[in-house]
Specification:
306 residues, alpha/beta, Rossmann fold, 2 domains, eight-stranded mixed sheet, 13 strands, 38% helix, 22% strand, SAM-dependent_MTases_sf
Length: 306
């Protein structure tokens, strides 16, 4: 099974019924659901497991946050499936990928598989706890490296907020966006100081020429972009992928990020089910029409050619 067929299998499991997922891996499904529904609500403690991804890498995960990878072999949200397909279509052997907000390293390891040992992958993760898993997942990949730092608009130290494991994908520099969520009251974050770095400085110091950059930093996207303006002004070939929230989710920071990119000549594209790009200038309208809370948006200067 090649990587495209593997992702199609992930999609089939993700879109299928509970019976479909149970039939595919009965023991894993029963153990996963028992932990999610019975054990975790009592203990509030995650459990470490290993899961084989659709592209053949073994990832160290902590349940329940990595449950979709554990059960399907990949990130199962439709936007994440489309992003994986776009990466498969886009990244070539020998190219460079930067993952800002890498979490457990799913997209970083996928990129490492695609660019091969002649390419390069650099992953950033600010959470100390999450970084421990990211580091393990990348340690056997000579083309990949990771840094336990937050990417921002200046070098320094900032407050970083870490949620319990079930909500760890929401770890952020920008906490206010979550304070009205129903789950927030019972899952308040801990606060820690993290060192910050700018991409302009990091790219220059390490003589990098990224071919694709993914930014998923829960509302701090604008800060990241402000710290890489030199790169954005001078590059023409590197798409920037950003998770973009709907207006209902207080997306001022995401609108600011999109406006900054547009001011530098970038156009916005959604990823279609085949992993190809479709121009969508009105992102808020697109999310509203399709009843979406968020989506991965690709910004690039040149028109895609297929």
């Amino acid at each position: 099974m090649n990587v495209k067929e593997g992702l199609q299998r992930v999609e089939q499991l993700a879109l299928g019924s509970k019976i479909t997922r149970l039939t595919a891996q009965p023991l894993k499904y029963l153990l996963g659901m028992a932990f999610m529904k019975i054990i975790y609500p009592i203990t509030k403690r995650g459990i470490m497991v290993k899961a084989r991804t659709f592209f053949g890498a073994d990832l160290q995960l902590v349940l329940p946050s990595g449950m979709d990878i554990y059960l399907t072999g990949g990130k199962s949200h439709v936007s994440e499936i489309r992003l994986a397909r776009f990466m498969i279509n886009t990244l070539k052997e020998g190219e460079q990928f930067m993952d800002v907000g890498a979490h457990l390293g799913y997209f970083s390891t996928l990129a490492a598989h695609l660019v091969g040992t002649s390419g390069r992958v650099v992953a950033f993760e600010a959470s100390k706890n999450t970084f421990a898993f990211l580091s393990k997942n990348l340690q056997r990949l000579p083309q990949a490296s990771c840094l336990n730092q937050a990417v921002s608009d200046e070098n320094g130290v900032l407050s970083f907020y870490e949620f319990p494991i079930l909500y760890s994908e929401y770890n952020t520099l920008e906490i206010k966006q979550f304070e009205q969520e129903n789950w927030y009251i019972k899952n308040k974050p801990s606060k820690a100081n993290v060192t910050t770095i700018t991409l302009d400085e990091f790219i220059a110091q390490n003589h990098l020429q990224p071919d694709l950059i993914k930014i998923d930093v829960e509302g701090a996207e604008y800060r990241v972009l402000m710290g890489m303006q030199n790169f954005l002004k001078t590059t023409f070939k590197c798409p920037i992928v950003i998770e973009y929230l709907s207006a209902e989710r207080h997306n001022t920071a995401h609108q600011d990020a999109a406006n900054l990119l547009r001011a530098m000549g970038y156009k916005s594209f959604i990823i279609d089910p085949e992993g190809k790009l479709m121009a969508v200038p009105d992102l808020n309208g697109y999310l509203l029409r399709n009843n979406l809370e968020s989506d991965n948006i690709v910004f690039q200067k040149n028109q895609p050619s297929y």
